[in-house]
Amino acid sequence: LANHSDMLEQTEKSSTELSQVLASVKVAKEFRLAIANDQLLLEYQPLVSLDNRKILGIEALMRWQHPVHGRMAPDSFIPMAEDTGLIVDATWWVFEHALAALRRIQDQTGNREIFVSVNVSAQDFNDPAMLDRLLLILEKHELEARHLHLEITERLLLRQSDQVRGLLNRCRQSGMSIAIDDFGTGYSALSYLHTYPVSTLKIDKSFVGQMLDDKQALGLVRSILSLGDNMSLNVFAEGVETEEQAKTLQSLDCKIAQGFYFARPMPENQLLTTIMEQH
Ligand code: C2E
Ligand code: MG
Ligand code: MG
Ligand code: MG
């Protein structure tokens, strides 16, 4: 009898696993269709100057408008998109739409300096033609490469791949900025910082969120800012939720920040209104 119930458990377990596999195949299939059928959408979150609180740039953040499950946050599907390689097509979708939007935003606000930041994944660097294709999109929208920031993770740099290094160097040489997202949460082998063409460190929101209650977190924020200073890198802060956090970052000489306190991610039309209102 014991054996029997063991066997039953075994069967149940493998059928759960099977249904999980089937579910993830289904999700991947749906995501592939979502890219083709414009079920993806972008929201834009402002990056502001801490000195005058004006919007200097925006980060493009992907959402999936699923026909059954509704609006899905990126953390719920980006890992699947990366595992299946579908992220590559999704990233091109983002580049196309974010740069077209940036063109409209620059035109309608008369601000030609505003930049857009796009999150890129490791797989996006497998294509040697990536930069040329990107330059064509910029050209199509009459944007300069300096209007585009690429946000990458420390994990990508730790791969020490010549392909990634070569592409990043060429992106940087062509004028794009390279930002390390969620800085401080990775494996932090700091030696990569001077062998890659990094322009910006984005302090992870977890440190910003804790820095007023936790001396260690504040110490980390300070250290990242002085590291940036010593290496001539820009340092941006993400996850600013209170005026006190904004003031503290400003007093530490951080220049640019992003967070719900200033603005949440929002659709293009709302962003336009927000930018127009600040002048
Ligand atoms: P991220 O690149 O670090 O983006 C910042 C995330 O922090 C966004 O979450 C944003 O809504 C959130 N955030 C901003 N300010 C605050 C704040 O003050 N408090 C709190 N609690 N959160 C704040 P979101 O939009 O859910 O995106 C999550 C992550 O998904 C992103 O983190 C990024 O890693 C990834 N992601 C988003 N869009 C894309 C994309 O187009 N491509 C790729 N590869 N990844 C993306
Ligand atoms: Mg980011
Ligand atoms: Mg981040
Ligand atoms: Mg991130």
TrEMBL record:
One of its GO terms (molecular function) is cyclic-guanylate-specific phosphodiesterase activity. Residues 24-279 form the EAL domain. This is Uncharacterized protein. It comes from Pseudohongiella nitratireducens.
